[in-house]
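Apologies for my clumsy wording, but can you show me some protein sequence, whichever is easiest, together with the matching structure tokens, please?
=====
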Amino acid sequence: MRLFLDANILFTAAYSPTGISRKIFSLAEAGHCTLSTSAFALDEARRNLAAKAPNHLQELDSLVRLLVIVPEPNPETVLWARQLPLPTKDAPIMAAAVQSGATVVVTGDRRDFGHLFGQTHKGVAVLSPRETMEYLLKE
């Protein structure tokens, strides 16, 4: 299973070594899934850590080794994602997940993605970290 991680999952995994987001990385390291993200999401996570918790940047850098950085999505796919609807800042996340062939986009962003939780669009399910863990543990 290929998971696409939103910036908030990257931030949380770097910030909290005992949280669910970090456990997703542990499952990937054990071979239960592959993790991907985009440079766009990684840059956002890095900026947020630099502003809010700069002492955790090194932790993010150590987690990057477990990620496949996928190409940025084409404009047509971003436009499609905006019509889900997703805000301009979040459409590239869903678009990159779809274009990269991810199975799940993992996000903790309930404000912008919450209306999509539990739904599948173009083959990509939108799940919270907890839902993703439950899904992985059933596999």
